[in-house]
Amino acid sequence: MSILKNILSFFLLWISFFGFTQNYDYELAYIDTDKIYYSIIQKEGGLFFGTNLGIYRIDNGAKLIEYDLSVKGAIDKNLNLETIRISFITAPKNIPLGEFRTSITVIQSFQNYVYVISRGKLLIYKNKLYSFTPYESVRSITTNYVGSYNGIYQMDEVLTYPPYTNGQIKEYDGITFICYDGLFAIRGNQQEILYDAPAGNRKYGAIENIFKLQTSKYIIVSDLGLYIYNLEENSFKMIYDGNYIPIVPVKKTFRNGFEFKTGFWFGQNNNLYSINLSNYEVSTFFSFESQIVDMIAVGDVIYVLTNDKKITFLYSTTQQKFIVKTIYLESQPHTIEIKRNYLLMSGNKGLSIYDLSENQLYNNVVTDEFNRGAIFKTDNAFSLGSIHGVYRFENIDLLVDSISSNFVVNEVNYRNDTILILIVILSGFIVLIYILNNRRRRYNNQEMVIAIKKYINANLNKVDVVAICEKFNIDNNLLYHLDSDFKPGDYIKQKRKEKAVELISKGFSIEKISKATGYSISYLKRYF
């Protein structure tokens, strides 16, 4: 009997991990079916449970220990026996309760967990600490915009133009800039192409980023160099020729309406440069052993990420500059940001966090392929853009507390070997999953993969991951776990590319190719 209970527990955990509704704030951490639970009492900083075997209390998170086994049954606020009263309560929608949703008798939040009694069983849920919204290959995130290779979204509504972005989006008071190789502006209801950049006709290069100066002017970073941009005149003036060597600007906290005042700092190869914004003189500020990948400045310290898996803390004032510290990393990130006392590092292998106060590095906080520069922070939260969508974290202190207790968020592979074995054993429960979740389709089978491929091929000019999820009644996470060799976003890109090459070889016009593939004309001119 106990074996069956253990199988049921792991089966419910599996349903919770791979549940059929996305964006829950909590995930199932533990379920106890060995006792009959009646009540939960919070008293003197602790949590106590009245059961048929006695009173138990929480020791840590999901671990229960014996407290008073002589008191069996429901308990009151003084931990004395009371009459059992059954009354169902409404469950919050952000917890994946499944079949237990309609029979909850007690629900209690405590620290980073939620404890639920349903049908006499205890279900313990842990806060996931992040929310996830699917988008295809996110390149930039701001307060009101998400920019991706598959469209630019303003409060979830896709813009008609530009059709994509591979640069930054910047929101300033009264105006938003979109760097999509060209430069696009949104002012209220007015939208304007300030500079278009079709392939082969890029006077000012491909624009990657824009920064506001204390004056009404801006600095633009393109693949050709640095420009002073005058919005009123819509004019560009080159102040630094980059010779097609990538420019890495120093990121600074945006305050008082501008980002840079008298000088602008940027990296090229191994060197950190400063440019005087009065006379545009460029000077070498510091030289590193390896190539600069990304940088952020906070106060008098510049945190410099280099391509040898290092982050160097460079202290700089008008009187002196010297290296304070160097962090050695296990993998190579491409983007860094700082949030209070934490360094956030994202790369192709995931998110890592370095606790500056504790000198502690946490790897694989989220495992996904993140895009360069796709990071955004506010006073209360930070968001990261991956090839699959946007991760948003509301409480970094809570996140670090959790991962420091060996809790690691792993979006791509969060199953250990034991659970994998149990999943195989529980394959016979698939029919039960259908019934419990009112689903008719079976995930991880080749029939669905074939059907999705056919749907993509038939709708190549408009299909995206969101459309596939809606068409096949499947959430984004499950979609990417149907087959380890099938990634829908990659498949769409490959088929579009093949179609474009085929039509080009047949001599079709660029307009017809754009209509058939979903590529924009400017994209086709640039890459084909």
Q: What does this entry look like structurally?
A:
The chain is α+β, with helices and mostly antiparallel strands. Among the domains are: 2-126, no CATH class; 167-292, YVTN repeat-like/Quinoprotein amine dehydrogenase (Methylamine Dehydrogenase, Chain H, 7 Propeller), CATH 2.130.10; 441-527, Orthogonal Bundle (Arc Repressor Mutant, subunit A). 19% of the residues lie in helices and 39% in strands. Strands 25-24-23-22-26-27-28-29 form an 8-stranded mixed sheet, with no helix packed on it. The relative contact order is 0.09. Residues 14-22, 405-421 and 431-444 have low confidence and may be disordered.
Reading off the top of the CATH hierarchy, the class of one domain is best stated as Mainly Beta
User: Beta-sheet strand percentage?
Assistant: 35-45%
Overall SS class: alpha+beta
Biggest beta sheet attributes: 8 strands, mixed
Short description:
The chain is of the alpha+beta class.
